[in-house]
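Sample intake sheet
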Amino acid sequence: MPKLAITGKGGVGKTTLAALLAHLYAREGRTVLAIDADPDSNLASALGVPPEIERQITPIAEMEELIAERTGTTPGTYGGFFKMNPRVDDIPERFSVTHNGVKLLVMGTVDRGGSGCVCPESVMLKTLVTYLLLGQRDVLIMDMEAGIEHLGRGTASAVDALIVVVEPGQRSVQTAQTIRRLAADIGLKKLYIVGNKIRDERDRAFIAEQLAGETILGYLPYSPRAIESDLQGKAIYEMDPQLLAEARAIKERLPQ
């Protein structure tokens, strides 16, 4: 079962692609686990999860009682001793919500001490990511922040594809180049590019030229309907058939 990690500069459309791919795999009858690992979490709405259900979702990083129980230390504390390998195997089933065949798990983020924080919350999240990548048999689609902070040398080999979403623009390209270097540092070689918000052939050419040498899976068109789906709180795949068709072509080029 493919395990996909999707990243890129904020606002380029990572969540849009994650939702489209999750839907397509689910339509094939596969068991799909979508992981929202972006601090600006909105994968639930992109998947069309009803607002009343979305409001009931608590990110794992905010489950203080659970984290304290599993690590032996209260979240928000530093120093001292706590379990570095807390139990996490039951978390996906207990705390995910299912909508239209896709299970969604929201990770949340550790907002204290920076990305290098060694605290109960960060240990819990890293252990959970490792378990999901190494132990899960489902199709796994992880919508990440603009980087690869959730991945490490121990999990890089389990990622079938690191997909970097890029829009036409220098800042987006620079982020993609930085991610490429970080991925190389941890031995993650299966990196692919998806262009998004493509208006014309000039946009395609810009991405192809700026990221020459990278494997480009395909391009998603600029979609006013995607914006409308966000405004209406509807699933992206219900609003734009063309976007869904292009995502299907991208999926067929991924490791199966």
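Comment: The chain has a mean pLDDT of 89. The radius of gyration is 18 Å.
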